Amino acid sequence: MTREGRRLRAIAGLTGGTYLVLAATVLLPLSAMLYFSFLNVAPINGRTATFTLKHYVDFFTKPVYRINAWRSFELGLYVTGFCFAIGYPAALLLARHIRNRWREAILLLIVLPFWSNGLVRTFSWTMVLNPGGLPDRFLHWLWPAVPTIDLIYTYPAIVIGLVHAYLPYMILTSYVSLQAIDDTLGEAALSLGASKLAVFLRITLPLSLPGIVAGVVLIFVPVIGSFMEPRILGGQQAIMLGTLIETQFTASFNWPLGAALGFVMLAIVLVVMAACAPFLKRQMSF
User: Fold this and answer.
1) For this UniProt entry, which segments traverse the membrane (predicted)?
2) Using an 8 Å Cβ cutoff, are 174 and 215 in contact?
């Protein structure tokens, strides 16, 4: 056997098991859900199922599904946009202007929410956003005549809860990209007469784009399928595609419809990614 053949065999031996486990744990559940999505009923408890396209047809013919799919898509855009607007400047400040132990301490604070349960974090927002919560008390302390702040069970409450949950992803991925940029590039541009804004727009932002893209994917994809935060913080505003899917599995026990809606959501994500891919490829090739 040649040297190249031995190298390939060693790589296959070291990584083959891992990829097999990943393929099994990802593809098997998806395959089962895809199969269920084409059935009229879930084949459990002795029920006989037949193949049908009814659930996919329902998505395109019943406005309730399209409206809530758009609401989920819109929520993903809002949350991703707010996470970028808050997280990227924070990552830039952390990578360029904060040094030594202060940086380590702030990084620790950023990952601190991951140490607590997501359900607990979400329920804690119900106490903050209720009338009489901390922001409400603080504003009344500053200005007693200000109206009571009551954000709980509103659309902004859902956005606040999701931004809080996913903001660390944008900060960490952007921070890693910004840290990898060679400082001498910016110094060389400044010495040649470029302004700080030009250095940011022509060097820092394009080179940090991989981190931004990673953050956008890590935030947008789970947010459009989220149901816990909308259910707890949104009240009547909580009806979205994610909550509809959850209801089909846990309350209506219409697993085929839930599976079909899940694959429609997956298709929406893939279409968005495919539409953005040419632009991102062009920007990241610079």
Assistant:
1) 12-38, 75-94, 106-128, 152-178, 199-224, 257-280
2) yes
In tens, the pLDDT along 7-29 reads 888 888 888 888 888 888 888 88
CB-based burial, 246-281: b 16+ in 10 Å, e otherwise: bbbbeeeebbbbbbbbbbbbeebbeebeeeeeeeee
Residue 263 makes CB contacts below 8 A (sequence gap 6+) with: 33, 34, 37
Judged against a pLDDT cut of 80, whether residue 2 lies above it is answered with no
CA of 237: how far to CAs of 65, 234, 241, 248, in Å? Answer: 15, 5, 12, 18
CB 160 within 8 A of CB 129: yes
Instruction: Tell me the helices (H) and strands (E) count for the chain, helix number first.
Output: 14, 0
Secondary structure of 181-237 as H, E, C letters: CCHHHHHHHHHCCCCHHHHHHHHHHHHCHHHHHHHHHHHHHHHHCCCHHHHHHCHHH
pTM of the model: 0.85
CA distances 87 to 58, 117, 211, 215, 222, Å, are 39, 22, 11, 10, 17
Q: Which two tokens stand for residue 111?
A: 């990952």
Q: What is the dihedral of CA 218, 220, 221, 223, to 10 degrees?
A: 110
Alpha-carbon distance 87 to 125, whole Å?
20
